Amino acid sequence: MNKFFQLLKVQMMNYWLQGNAKTIRSQLLRSVPLALFILGIASFYAAMLFQGANAFVYPYLIFLAASIVMAISFFTTLSTAQATFFEFKDYDLLISLPVNKKWISFSKFLSAMVNQWIISWVVLIPVFVVCIVHYSGSFQFAVFYLLGMLLLPAVPVSLGILIALAFRWITAGTRFENLLKNILNVALVIFIIVINFSQNFGMSGRSSGSISTVRKIGPGLVNQWFFTPANWFAFGTVLKDSMQLFYLLLVAVISLGIVVTVYLKLFDRIHHRSAVTYHVKNFKLTKAKGGSQVIILVKREFKTLFSNFAASLNIFMMPLMGILAGVTICYFTPQFLVNFLISDGETILLPIIYFLTIFSGMPIYSSSAINIEGTRFWIIRSLPISERKFLMVKHFVGLFMSIIGPMVCLILCSIHFKFDASLFFTGFILVISLVVAINSFALLMNLLLPKMIYDSPELAIKKGGIGSVLGGVVPYLGSIILFVSFMKSMEDSISNKVTLMLCLAVIVAIMALVLEVILWVYGPKKIRKLG
Questions:
Q1: Helix, strand, coil shares of the chain as percentages rounded to 5?
Q2: Domain identity same for 375 and 449
Q3: Is the residue at 207 inside a domain?
Q4: Which of 206, 228, 236, 291 stands 20 to 30 A from 374 (CA)?
């Protein structure tokens, strides 16, 4: 048993710190950036308070933020369960340990479960506190909520394992596996979105959502959309009979038991069956000439994003978060908040877009999925294309995917709230400069502090991908600190809020320009030598 706990410790460290190039995007999204997401929300509240926003907006936004984070957390956990349970190199390494193979499989399952619990508790405990303090939640609500925090995080892990087992067994590890998983994952995402929009938005939108109606939890508010995370984890507060709760617990335990049993029984058989057909495809660039090589790389990069959905689900969830935020603000906002936005939109909408750009951007993609570490670096060096062009393609894809969400949100808000030209131009500059600065810094950190290039495996483990971590974390934290410090220091000098945000956008644009010059004028090779 002691060996099992040691193995579990290794799995947890791998889950948080030493994920390989294929999975570290999802791992980093779960760890430090998600914690910083909560910090960013808190900073956003502070900025709103500093701007004189209505205090009743804060609990409302907590529910909205928790819904978004939990949805991302659930689907990235599901995708990671699909992507990491059949890592061949990882499995072969673990199989050499003096531990039963079933315990190795079970440790993977348990580590994913524990990490999902951590994320859920970090997000849901503040929601629980807000429900109790602001809305006078009942004792029954508190009990169901706490039980939900224990039970429901098992859902994405169990689903991910079952999906991974099913499609690996059906396809035997061929190229059709990812395609089938993509279709199912997209269907799940669409299903959850449709259910939430159809069931939980019935009393919001343009209804008379006054301040008094959100003062307490009552029968008429069970389906209010901003209570979505609370209802998820309190089972809608509809369970009245204690025997119903007992049956629910019994079903959850039996379901987990079935999942674990099936997983332990079939893992090795499925793994060895699929290993026979496992192969790695290289880029077909040898016949390409001139600029067509870059075009092929761009097509290949987007094809990889769409075909390897299980490992990069968050790359699509980030733009989706921005799009949903824009749709929510424009079409599903309670009337009292709409009135506030219309009357004081210049004050609050640009900060909203600023923070939305930060948290829907993808420094994790540029930093960790850049494919310049480990064995993939040697594949790059064998290609008939320069490393500079290869990294430019990666950088372009990261910028393109990062801009989609906040730009759609900006356009929707501009149309709905009738932004004037100066307000839209300020938001446009803000989005572009932030995205470029964040992704450029992430790539720079990865080049300075790579994970495995020229290192022995022991040194690579000790370094733990520090460049990827810094590239994913520093842009988030730095952007928050920059916003708060700049607004505090310049509020007395510049009274116009749009002008103030434009000055901030110019500062970020200068930083982005400097980073781009360092990357492409000084060059990736010279930067790597500095590290």
A1: 80, 0, 20
A2: yes
A3: no
A4: 291
Structural domain of 447: 288-531
Residues 497 and 358 in one domain: yes
Q: Is 485 exposed, middle or buried (0-12, 13-18, 19+ CB in 10 A)?
A: exposed
Domains in the chain: how many in total? 2
Enumerate long-range contacts of 461-469, CB under 8 Å, 24 or more apart.
461/18, 464/17, 464/18, 465/17, 465/18, 465/19, 465/24, 465/368, 465/373, 467/367, 467/531, 468/24, 468/28, 468/364, 468/367, 468/368, 469/17, 469/28, 469/32
CB 89 within 8 A of CB 25: no
In a domain, 88, yes or no: yes
Do residues 144 and 263 both lie within one domain? yes
334 shares its domain with 264: no
Question: Who contacts 207 (Cβ-Cβ below 8 Å, separation ≥6)?
Answer: 334, 335
Residue 154 is assigned to a structural domain of this protein: yes
My answer on whether 108 and 136 are in the same domain is yes
CB 33 within 8 A of CB 361: no
Do 456 and 526 belong together in one domain?
Answer: yes
The tokens for 445 are 């950190």
pTM of this prediction?
0.54
Mean pLDDT for back-to-back runs of 10 residues, the chain (531 residues) = 61 51 43 47 48 49 59 63 53 54 65 71 71 66 72 68 67 58 63 53 35 38 49 52 58 62 54 38 44 61 52 55 68 59 64 76 48 44 65 77 82 79 87 88 75 42 54 75 81 76 90 90 76 58
For residue 383, being part of any structural domain is answered with yes
